[in-house]
Amino acid sequence: xxxxxxxxxxxxxxxxxxxxxxxxxxxxxxxxxxxxxxxxxxxxxxxxxxxxxxxxxxxxxxxxxxxxxxxxxxxxxxxxxxxxxxxxxxxxxxxxxxxxxxxxxxxxxxxxxxxxxxxxxxxxxxxxxxxxxxxxxxxxxxxxxxxxxxxxxxxxxxxxxxxxxxxxxxxxxxxxxxxxxxxxxxxxxxxxxxxxxxxxxxxxxxxxxxxxxxxxxxxxxxxxxxxxxxxxxxxxxxxxxxxxxxxxxxxxxxxxxxxxxxxxxxxxxxxxxxxxxxxxxxxxxxxxxxxxxxxxxxxxxxxxxxxxxxxxxxxxxxxxxxxxxxxxxxxxxxxxxxxxxx
Length: 342
Ligand code: WQD
Prior knowledge:
342 residues, alpha/beta, Rossmann fold, seven-stranded parallel beta sheet, 11 helices, 17% strand, isomerase, UDP-glucose 4-epimerase GalE, EC 5.1.3.2
């Protein structure tokens, strides 16, 4: 009997890749998504890759009645992976209430319904943004949580606290908090990938759209930072590596009875790459030039952050595998696929 998992936000970038890996690992997946930042055609891509079509419910997780009906219609859900959230840092500064309402009400609704329907555990999509500007790198899970620099980042910090408090109150559930560094790339099949709506805020989709001629030029937001080449450093993690970590976390949560009720893991490669190094990796991997210029720093950017993934490597038995050039080649393949479809 296949364990049934609910993936909220499952037609999104990381949610879709995680659904593929869950299905490849033998889990049955139910997706709920309101399609506010994704497209139902992603379900076709998931099916084309894994040969299995997940159950799809179009709905808004901020409505508890929608969620309750989903659990009633899909009995036997044992675990949840919660991706459903608004995630644009800049937008969150303009529309804080949308972010607090969407991201926090979604989580609270899920937590409230879990005991009612016998759901054992929830994997939460958190972010290295909770660390703010680290005092030192690489950064592990014991690093201090810094005051959030955006409502988006604050929703991640508050969400972690809500889960901790709920478990401490005696709720019969477990949780694993996964703090992602910078997810990039696309499935090697080029059948699913990142689908940013409008002008991409994140580096890699903007970079691939520039390489494809959709954007005229990539602006590197500052080259006067205290880093070897002056541009910011991040820990770019391949989205398929990231998806696989969720499957391992879910298995651990559902099958391993002697773990803590709440566990936290940093998911990164452990290597920091600058913006200019990433552009170079793309050009070397694809042979496609990326027209770019140096511009002003972007408000709110931190200078450098990369993970110490030791805990995830040793406790989860998970390690990022992808070579950055392969990740860049997959990102480009996906961009070409999307551009052709237009
Ligand atoms: C990476 C680097 C930019 C665009 C954010 C969130 C994080 C996570 C991922 C949601 C930075 C530089 C970017 C461009 C550039 N959340 N850059 N030109 O800001 O590290 O992380 O997105 O998904 O929680 O905080 O990612 O991709 O926006 O930027 O030079 O056109 O690329 O300055 O140094 P970031 P990013």
